[in-house]
Every structure is written in structure tokens, then in C-alpha cells.
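User: Assemble these into one structure.

Assistant: Restating your components, then the assembled model:
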Amino acid sequence: MKLNIRLCSLALSIALLLVSCAHHPDVPASSNATNSLPAIFPDYCNVTVPYNIAPLNFMLPIDEYSECVARITTPDGQQQTYGEGVKVQIPDDEWHNMLDAAKGKSLNVEVWGQKEDQWLSFSPFEIKVAEDAIDEYVSYRLIEPTYVAWNYMSISQRNITTFEESEIFNNGLTCNDKEKGQCINCHSYQNYKTDNMLFHVRLSNAGTVIVNDGKISRKNLKRDYTISSGVYPSWHPKAKLIAFSTNLTRQIFHTLNHDKIEVFDLASDLILYDIDKDSVIVVSEDPDLLEVYPSWSPDGQYLYYCKTIPLPEEMRGEDVDIRTTYSKIQYNLYRRSFDVNSYHFGDEELVYDAASADRSATLPRVSPDGRYLLFARGQYGCFHIRHSDGDIVCMPLDEQSPTELDLSNLNSEGFADSYPTWSSNGRWIMCSSRRGDGNYSRLYFSYFNNGKVEKAFMLPQEDPEQNTYLLKCYNRPEFMIEPVTISMGDFSKVFDK
Amino acid sequence: MNKTLSSTKVHGIVLSGFLFLAVLLFYGLYYPHHLHFQEQFQLFLFDGGYITDILVNPGGLADLVGRFLTQFFLFAWVGAAIVAILFVCIFLLCWRTAQAGWFQGLSLLPAMLVWAFFCDENALLVAIVALLLALAADWGVSAIRSKRLRLTLRIISAPLLYWMLGPVGIVCGGLGLISAVRSREKSEIWVALVAVLVMALMPLLAQSITVLPLDGLYLSTHYHRYPEVFPQMLWLAAACALLVPLFPATSSNRILSTTIWVLMFIAGGWGVKMSYNRASEEVMSYDFMVRFQQWNRIVETANQKKPNNALSCATLNLALGMKGELLDRMFDYHQNGVAGLLPDFQRDPVVALFGSEIYYHLGLINTAQRHVFEAQEAILDFQKSGRCYKRLAETNLIVGNYEVARKYLLVLTKTIFYRAWAQETLALLYNEEAIDRHKEYGPLRASLPTQDSFFDQRQMSRMLVGLLEANANNRLAFEYLQAGALLTRSR
């Protein structure tokens, strides 16, 4: 019996060892120099990464190359090679050891690729390792790039220091009317923590699921005096208050434009929801203008939001077709001061006049130190992830005439970049971008250091090819410093059977 | 009463052969498009992640086998043969449990009920595979001579069968209990009872692990495309499979036996007839023909029996348009107004697919892409579709979204029947000349509108004019524009 146990243990150990062994190939004895950077996917050449990020696994194009070898050198001269087929997949522990050794410095990466039986060598590149950590978790909705109908979707969370991903909730659990369907969206957290969080559920078994100090409830935020239930949320950083927009949203579809879909609001206002009192206060409800995307400053003293400018006289009125006016709808950024004791809002202040530059600004986010403002910008409208000209903009808040920072290392050319957000230490910017193929959005991160933005890198995956095969978009990414620990079963208890 | 071995075998072969032929001819000749319908709303991938995602859920093995077999429904006769084999196996496995005598004929009932179940286009092959494997599992366990091994397997297999087959796996436990009671051995009875109890409680355990709704875990783990539908015919078949061995053995009486066999065929046949949906088969036939661009066949079919269903009419109009005969012949057939040219969009996979075909051939590629995307998203059991991915790849290729097209093509390379086409089409990416020269994609690319606009069902004439302005050779757009005017005036 004892011998059997020992033999089994030995067999198991050998099996685990074989499975965990990385492939450390030899560097090709001879190769032709290309004098160019390798066309690796994802592009991790000369990026800056946090010292706690998961391995930056990459690959050479599978239809051009048959093998890839990468040699990584740490600042202290340690070297290791990786490569199996065209993929470079680095074990967690080896990678994190290299990052520890390179903190504040760089890893040097050399790549060889075999093409038609010939080895090619590429120009080496660096992976700079910042001394600043990144929040360990991000959450996002995984959804097809849908039009009206939608399939399975989930709100998922990912530990970005590893490859672990799990679902927070999905639309298969509590949908009790499959023909009606169920949409889940707008997950949001207070101060990057998950003891206070929310997400919306629309259509079947609808409501807003709110976690308040760990207690789950499902609320209907629609009131007689509001145009809809709460939509885009923003938690007050200190109080049990959530600002929402309320929206009547529509879509129309292009017959030729690659952007395919226009999303617009027929009406939108701002409300403030008091969680403890379950009360809804209207913040602003201009009948002629659209207010949307509330976002609190980190000290909770200001509410930032977007609001349209008035349309030309001839474009106003109920008879005017939105199809003729949608490209004229442009949003500026505003803010109002807020007194958390009296719930009183101050007068509106213009923060960024996008319209005078013939632009539209949306999704404002103030940096955790209160010094910078991130937002998305396009030529018009409020849904820039659907506009190929959508870009991220960052400007200082503490200047009289602020100059936009250079975000060319973050933005892509000709593809939609949107939904920017800050990490809790204000050192990393995350955005959702369709730069890969114009349709399926992926997450990108950029190091932000004293106004300078480094080259963005894609969220790493264990299998780099997953980024190609995954037919879902990463939607509404949010940083968290801890995971959501409430189980799907517990969430589902607040729904009707 | 002992069965005579050779006559039993002969009976078995004859009855099996008769059932096989009946099912084969039914699905091959009268109901082939229901099989095509099943195939087009799923996509079996030879991919580890895809397979694992199915197997980890309750009923996973049956689901995987069911989906694997369904891909062959692309070819109706192959599909018909697969279905016939499954039904015959269910019959034979029930027959083995029947006592000798007049009541043997009842063993045909489960197969006939399953046949009636499968007349519903949303009943999935998974359910039939699950029932078959449950019956086969009982056969396998019962055949074990060693009592200790047999009883051990009964217990171990209980939770495994639930996880592999779903709730219908309880049929194995039920049959085990029946034969245990018949044996009158206490240990057999207790073990069988425990096995049934374990199976009955497994859904509760499954819910705590998977958090899936409990009613689905008890009644239908992907047995039907509509998750909230209770597959009553399937459960009736399962109940009958449990009842069959309960009927006592009787003396041999050929007349009575034959009468019951015939009655079961008639009763089963009546059940199939009541479940058979001729109207939807007709719509599906048009859908199949438009999918494979069989324009002449569509018109010939309409000449034999004029369609009066909106979708069939729209398909016929498309076929006439593709043959350049729409204006000459459209009033030879029933017309459904403008909706018979361009059906209104509905969040329904069937309607959206029909619309997609029409817009595709007109040259409104963005609109065709939207319709086919919506069709796939509207599939209620969250499956993907080979047909939809193919059209998505094509539309993205035509408008130059090559990387998006590549994604869909790479998925299709993981299939048996779409792989070759996907690999050929991958070679077209970024090859502008080859696309322009392509006999289908080239003309469609040339027919793309030159001015962007917003799709508006109420302003089709404006959009059709736009297509003609982009390409005066777009004969179909011309015919649709004129047909629309005629239909509007004729009201």
C-alpha cells in the first residue's frame, strides 16, 4: 500500500513537472539579420509594464513563420530562452523573477523567427519595468459587438498579475424570459473596492443590483419624474451616493460607413441616488440639452459630466429627424461643486469646450491625485467606442489654459479608443480599443508618469492567439484593487425565480 | 416463457429494418430541411476549449455527441441515416428489456415518441443521445456477471451519468431498480434505490456548482433550444422505456403480438403525423434553397405549390430577381406587399437570416451583415452558426474588414465541412485583385453604395436608388425598385 502511494506520488510529480516545464530552446546557430523589430502579436516592443503584470506572452504570425525563439536578458545579465512553435509563453514564476530583477530598469528581448527553413533575427527591443504596480484586478463585460440582439454575455474579472479570469455574473442565470432576453451592464465600484459595487440588469428580471457594505439588493431606480432608471453610474468616493445618468437611447445603422452603428440619446438627465434612503434626486434635467456620464472627483467635491451644446435653431424641434442632426450633437465637459452634507450642487462650470473645436467629449475621469482629467473625444456624439476617430485625451486640471498631453503612445490611428480609466495609484491608464481589427475591442494599458504616457500594451493572455480567436469585446473595463468575492449564486438570490 | 433465439433475432432485424427505413425515408424525403435547420443553428468546433466548455456542464457528454452528430445534418440523407440509427438503437435497447410475449410491441413506443419529439425543429439531438446512452448504460451494467462489480458500477455511475447525460440519465437508474426488484435480492434493491436517489439529488449538487436554474437541471439540460420548454415527448418516451419491462411475460400468440406491433406503429405514426409541421418544413426548404442560391429550384418549387408565407414569398421574389424575371413574373404568384420583397426586421434568427440574404444580393452589405449578426445573436441556446459565420466572413471580406473576416474564417477552419472553404477564402484576404475578380464577391463589391446613409425600412426606394446610382448594372436593385412601386400601387 505504501509503495503504491509512493509510486503514485512519483508519477504525479513527474507528470506535473512535465506539464510545468517551459520549453527553453537553443538560440539558432546562424540567422539572417532583418534590422527591423519583429512583427510580434501582441506588440510588446518597447512598452513599459508594471512590475506585477502577468507574462507578456507573444507570437510571430503563424502563416509566415514556423518557429520562434525569444531570449530575455535581465539587467543583471541572467538570460533565458523561450519558444514553442511560433509562440513565446513564459511561466509565471520565471517571468515574475525577471520582473523583480528588472524593476525600474528594462528587460532586453531578442527574437528569432524561422521562415521557410531560414532563421531570421530581429532588432532587439526592451520591455521597461516601472517601479509602480498596477491594480491587480480589472473587470469588464464580455459581449459580442452587437447591434440590437445579443447572445451570452458576462461581467468577468481578471487578475492581471496572472491569467486567472472568473465570471462575476452572466445573463444565463436569472433570465426567466429567454425570448425577451437579459442584458447586464454598467458594473461600477466605489474607490476600486468591491464591498460597494453595482451592475444593471435590463429586460428580463430587471433592476440594479447594488452591493452595499457587502449586502446585496436589487433596486428599481425608475421614478415617475425620471425618464428612465439609472444608467451610467459613478459612486461618490466617500458617501453612499451614486450619480447616474438617465437615458433614452437609440441606435441607427450605416449602410456603408465602417463605423456601422450610431448610438445616441433622445433625452438624458442626471440623478443622484441615496443608497441608504433609496431616494432619487434629480441633479439636472434640461429639456433641450443632453446630460450624461457623471463622474466624481476623487475628493467627492465635484461632479463632472458631459452636456450638449444647443443645436442650431433649424435643427431643433420634435419633427426634426435625428438622422440629419446626429453629427451635430457635441458634448462639452462640465462640473458642479457638491456639498456632501447638504447634497447641494453649485453652479455649472465649463471644464472643456470640445464643441468650439468641433469635437465632442465624453466619459470624464479625474486622476486619483486630482491633477489630470482623462476623457474620450470624437468628432460628435456620445458613444466614441463606435467611432473610428475616437481617441483618449488627457489634460491637466490645475492650469489656467491647459494643454493636452501627448497621448500618441496610447491612442491608435484610425480605430476607436474609448472608456479611459485610471488605476488607483494614478500611474496606469486603461482603455478599450478596437485597434486590432476595427470591431473586437481589447484592453490596453499605458504608463502615466508625471504627464508622460508610454507606449500602450495589450492585456496579456496565456495563449497570445486567444486575442485573435476570442469573438467577444472587452467592454467598460474598470480597475479594482481586490476581486469581487460574492458568488454568482448569492447574486442570483435577489432575483425572481 | 423463453424466447426462441433465432426467431427473436429475425424479429429484431425485420422490425429494426422497418423502423430504420421508415425514419430514413421520412427525414430524407419529407422532412430533410428540419435537419438542415438544426445544422445551421449550431457549430461544432474541433477545439479543446470548445469541447471542455461543453463537457464541464451537466449533460455535457450527450451535448457534445449530439452537436457532433448534428453537423452531419448538412447532408440530409446522412442526417436521416444518423437519426434512423439512433431511433433503432433506442428501440432495440427497449426491446431487450421487454418480457417475451404480446407486450413486446410496447418496446417500439419510446422510439416512436422520440421520433415525434424530434419533429420539432427546436428539439435537439442531444436529448435523443442522452436517452440512448442512458439505455445503453443500463445494458452495459446489467451485462456484468460479477454481482459486486455490477452493484459498484450502479452506485458510481449514478452521479457520472447525470453529469454526462443530464436528467434523462435517471432512466438507467430506473431500469436498474426494476431489474433489481425482479431479482428480489435485497442488496440489489438497496443499491438500485440508492443509485436512483443519488441521481434525483444530483441536480441540487449541480446547481450549487454551476448556479444554473434548478428546473433546467431537473428537466432539460440543453434538450431543447428554448430552455424553458419542458420536453414532454422526451420524458414520455423515457417513462415508456421504464414501463416496458414492467409488462409481464405472456404465452406466445402470433396474432396478438402482431396486432400490438402494428398498433404501436400506427399509434407512433399518428404521433409523428401530429407533430410533423408541413408549414415550417416549407419555409425551411426555401431557406435552404436561398442559402445555396438555388434560384431555379426555388422557382420550380413555387410552380408546384405557390407559397403564401411571407418569408417564402420574399425568397421567391429574390429568386425571380436573381434570374431577372421579377417584374415579368411576380404577379404569377401571391404577393405580400412590400414586406414580401423585404421582410421587416425581427429579432428572430429565421427572419433575420432571410433578410440578410436579400440585402446581401442587393449589395447592401452592411445591412446584410447586421441581419446575419442579429440572427446569430438571437439563437436562443447561445450556440453559434456555421452559416452565419460564413456570411459574416464574406460581408467583412467584401467591405475590406480583412482582420474581422480572418477571425471568422479561423473559427471555421476548426470545422469539418466549412474548413476547406475557409482556407480558400483566407487566401483572398488583402488580395484586392482576386476579390474583384471573384464571381460573387467582385460584383457585390462593385454594387456597394457610394454614399453612406442610414438604413430605414420605410425608405427602401431611396436606398435602392442609391444602389443604382452606385452601379447602374445592379439589375436586382432595379427590379426591386420597380417591384416595390408596383406593389405599392397595387394596394
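The helical segments of chain A are 2-20, 92-101, 322-325, 466-469, 488-492.
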